[in-house]
Specification:
The chain has about 110 residues and is α/β, with parallel strands linked by helices. Helices cover about 35% and strands about 20% of the residues. The chain is globular.
């Protein structure tokens, strides 16, 4: 399942993500984990549990900041973000993920 999901998304190294000013890093980790381990400066926090309807611009719970943006999802180690990015791609969103997650970023 993971390999299939990754075959459908763009995966970014931390260096590529940091160098792309048009890419919005979306941190899907819990608030507790972010508090405990830190955050990527300039990233947007959208917990994994609410991600699909925050990105869906037809949803009443949408986040306008995510509209039309290229997204790079970040989780702790780069597994959950791959699956979530593939789901968003199915919904028509330009989404990829960060190889190695937050751990690789740090």
């Amino acid at each position: 399942m993971l390999a299939e999901a990754r075959s459908r998304i763009r995966r970014y190294t931390p260096e590529e993500a940091a160098a792309d000013p048009d890419l919005l890093l979306v941190d899907t980790r819990s608030a507790d984990e972010r508090e405990r381990t830190g955050v990527i400066p300039g990233s947007k926090h959208v917990p994994l549990s609410v991600l699909p309807w925050r990105v869906d611009q037809t949803s009443e719970w949408r986040d306008p900041e995510l509209a039309g943006r290229r997204l790079c999802l970040v989780c702790a180690h780069g597994f959950a973000s791959s699956l979530a990015a593939a789901q968003l791609v199915e919904l028509g969103v330009d989404a990829g993920d960060l190889i190695g997650g937050y751990e690789a970023w740090t």
